[in-house]
Design brief:
The complex is a heterodimer of chains A (about 100) and B (about 350).
Chain A (H helix, E strand, L loop, with lengths): L21 H9 L11 H5 L3 H4 L3 H9 L5 H4 L7 H5 L6 H11 L2
Helix pairs in contact in A: 1-7
Chain B lengths: L2 H9 L10 E4 L4 H4 L1 H14 L4 E3 L8 H5 L5 H18 L3 E4 L2 H16 L1 H15 L8 E4 H7 L1 H6 L15 E5 L2 H4 L15 H8 L3 E2 L14 H4 L4 H15 L6 E4 L2 H18 L12 E3 H8 L17 H7 L30
Parallel strand pairs in B: 1-2, 1-3, 3-4, 5-6, 5-7, 7-8
Classes of the chains: A mainly alpha (about 100), B alpha/beta (about 350).
Amino acid sequence: MTDFGFTLSRSATVDLDRVDRSRYERLVALAPDARICMNCGSCGATCTAAPFSGMSLRKVLLGLQRGQDVRPLLDSCMLCGKCTMVCPRGINTRRLILSLSKVYD
Amino acid sequence: MIYEGKQKIWQDYQKEIPDDHWYFVRSCIRQNFFPGSEHMFTEITQKVLGRDMYENPYHTTCGGIAYHCDTLPQETAMTIVARQFALMTEAGYENYVASCITSFGNYVEILETWHEFPELEARIRELLWTSCKREFRKPKYLAHTSDLIYHWRNEIAEKAKVRLVDCHTGAPLRMAEHIGCHYAKMFPSKGVGGAEYPYVLAGMIESWGGQVVDYPERRHCCGYGFRQYHMQANRGYCVSNTHKKFESMEPYGIQAILTNCPGCAYFMDRWQYVIAEQTGKTYGPDGFGIPVLTYEELAGLVLGYNPWDLGLQLHQVAVEPLLDTLGVPYDPDAKYLGLNKEDLLRPELPKNLKCF
């Protein structure tokens, strides 16, 4: 490859026709609640770990839908359950996180 | 749908373009990038269409390239522009046509600024008088050269010797059009079709027999962006934008690209070589790229000019497959012969992008 002193940057575009959504589909099979999330972000706003790790359940679900690896985010969850208390759709978010760990088994 | 209502709305997107008596100013970079284009503009307008297109050899850059690179303040660019207008005034013209999209955007921006801040215009008049002892009138009509070719597109079509049609299948040539950001994105009312429905290049393609192909990133910037390219550390961002456009147009089988901006034509042409060297990927058939033409080059091809007189040998992407598709005759041995058969020497060929 010729060295020009610069290279192509990776595009931030998400092509939904090409990404691998199999992990998201497995999560939905284990915890159908994942489908009713409306991405309001209340979970991220109340997350105890968020200020230190960037953790947000919304980010986790969007990442899975876009075929991204969300394990680093999951590692910082302490299962405190604050997100469950504020979720306007009544999602059992703690169960969602535990189901996610099975998806990555 | 109420047809009259649509017609009325479309009228708001039209631009008044006088038919004759223009004062022409060149681009500072086009003559290096695509030297046949500006020559072909004067050739077509003066000799083929018989219009009055006056050019003063003492005109200069408009300062737009340095202004957009943040290397000179706007007052300096304004004084340069004021001198250009003074030359037009001295020549007795009031219709001003610029060959460069950034020049066009620069002129529009300055005229609008003077309209909003008349005290600034008065100060620039003082600066011009102090430095050059010149005075000026503002142009009555301001246009880009692609506006004029668009205005005369049907007249060119009547004189056409070549149509934009695949001579083997009879199908219209599938073309993408790319309009420079400084044409109508800054001041939409100053361009044909505005920023939402720019029709200046699409109109030419349709009049000359081609088919305009839409694709998702059609209105995305070519990537040049001035500081993105001129600072070497930012060039990855520049080429990534171009890459995004080509990835987006890839599934649509585009045979040629038409542009009206010096930077767009240059970077969409040259970056195909860089992308091919970095990724091994080419976007045309059989390892070739997609030819990128200026509107004067396309008009010249349509009017039957020799491709090598149009400067098509100075493109990075080989144009021969396009010429074969259109049935345009050319002499491969004369590709690198200049005026009076002077040998221009052959360039080194790229590894991944197929060229002749």
